[in-house]
Amino acid sequence: MTGPLHQRIRSEIEARIRSGEWAPGHRAPTEAELMEQYGCARMTVNKAMTALVEAGLIVRRKRAGSFVARPKVHAPVLNIPDIQSEIVARGEAYAFRLLSRTVRAADRDSPDEVALAAGGKLLELDGVHDAGGRPFALERRLVSLKAAPEIEAADFAEHPPGAWLLEHVAWTEAESRIGAINADAADARLLALDEGAACLVVDRRTWREGQHVTRVRQVFPGEAYDLVARFGPSA
């Protein structure tokens, strides 16, 4: 490749990432290693790596190094992303690991749970979405068995709870709240992150014709999710 050396370095690293030779989470060479490999100055290497970071292909972790970024779920702000479909569309193996499954009554001290249950029971589900054999997102979900009684016996081996609900109990109204947290020890362990790592949290509730269906909290590593909004000019 002709042109500036930093562009060549970037292109060669990008090719390894896009071909799958370097999988998400793969540790990239250090700047010193790249300087030795290409016989160039640190500024040249830094320019190439900065461009890869800006392109979302590399993520830098303080005191740990540079790693291939996990592909992001691109979620339209006014839509509910199907994590399984997003991951499969990228050509990665998808799996949902169910950690716990409990049928219980609503907590009487929680107005939200009482409203969700609507006099019935709740199905509480905790699980992890995996992409390419790596943890991608945590999911903690409550489902109204009054709104979706069949889910109590559902097998989530092929379709996770969210996909099951989209197919069987289509929502007519949804509310999403997006925030950020630092992973505590338990979440960090399940997501294979360092404790305190930045994570994005999506809290969502759905209704079907006024009836509460589900409440879910999904926790993503900060590098694995972004929100997309497209607007036209106002009248």
UniProtKB/TrEMBL annotation:
TM region(s), chain numbering: none
Entries under NCBIfam families matching the protein: his_ut_repres (TIGR02018)
Gene3D superfamilies referenced in this protein's UniProt entry, alphabetically: Chorismate lyase-like, Winged helix-like DNA-binding domain superfamily/Winged helix DNA-binding domain
Gene encoding the protein: hutC
Naturally occurring in which organism (per UniProt): Caulobacter segnis
Domain of life: Bacteria
Domain HTH gntR-type: 3-71
Protein name per UniProt: Histidine utilization repressor
A Pfam entry, by short name: UTRA
InterPro entries, sorted: Bact_HTH_transcr_reg, Chorismate_lyase_/UTRA_dom_sf, His_ut_repres, Tscrpt_reg_HTH_GntR, UTRA, WH-like_DNA-bd_sf, WH_DNA-bd_sf
SMART domains: HTH_GNTR, UTRA
UniProt keywords, alphabetically: DNA-binding, Transcription, Transcription regulation
